[in-house]
User: What shape does this take?
Amino acid sequence: MEDCDGHTHRCVIKHRSERAVSGDRVRWRMLAVGSGVVTRVLPRKSLLQRPDFRQGARPIAANLDQIVAVIAPRPEFKEVLLDRYLVTAEHAGIRPLIVLNKTDLLSAPALEHTRARLAQYSSLGYKVELSSVKQEQGLKALARRLKDRSSILVGQSGVGKSSLIRNMLPHANIAVGSVSKGTRLGRHTTSATTLYHLGCGGDIIDSPGVRDFGLWHMPPDEIANGFKEFREFLGHCRFRNCTHRNEPDCALRAAVDSGQVNSRRFESYHSIISGMSP
Assistant: This one.
């Protein structure tokens, strides 16, 4: 825990029913030099959670202003995983930001193709930034997005989250990993969620990389509502419990057929629903 003067203390939680996470504000009492006890976790303005087999949903970070979904050419990103991050952000009421990192790995044609894939998100109002630590591109623009905000970086292992933070905080002792040549998946280098203060103002939280981000702790109607372009059509189907598959007079499917809703995003929604079982 960090006090108001920036000093850190190793603390225990007094009440087992409470759990403090990165970004929490707490009341605490000192027991000895460098140690203490947290007596209360103060009310949160936002909370990011992920599924947990035992608890249903496990808190990751609190009091966030922004969720930064970091993707990269390697390991290759998939829209359905990005959609899961966005649904999570919408559900938590936290502003999302998409960052395509490691653009130095893309040829000019491949970069244009990736830009085209991301255009569907820009058209929905999501902010998209491109960056390369190796080529020092896009880093100032990203810093402006992080300034005076409390943000968390999420994304698969190996997409360069820790490299981005190390670039912004060169004096911090942050480990940087690589992508496995055999599996093309990232190796985990961050083992715990850690909060850092940015010199430009604001905080950044580095979270352990995940290769998947399930949403099975959320009801199907909340997942549908997490697709922001679906909202104006939800509740207008003939059947109140419409699954938006084969039912007659489905307003959402009609919106897909007419081009008002992106068919790829609609398929992503059904892919998420189909994989909801833990």
The chain has three domains: 10-41, 47-206, 220-274. Residues 47-206 form a domain with the Rossmann fold fold (CATH 3.40.50.300).
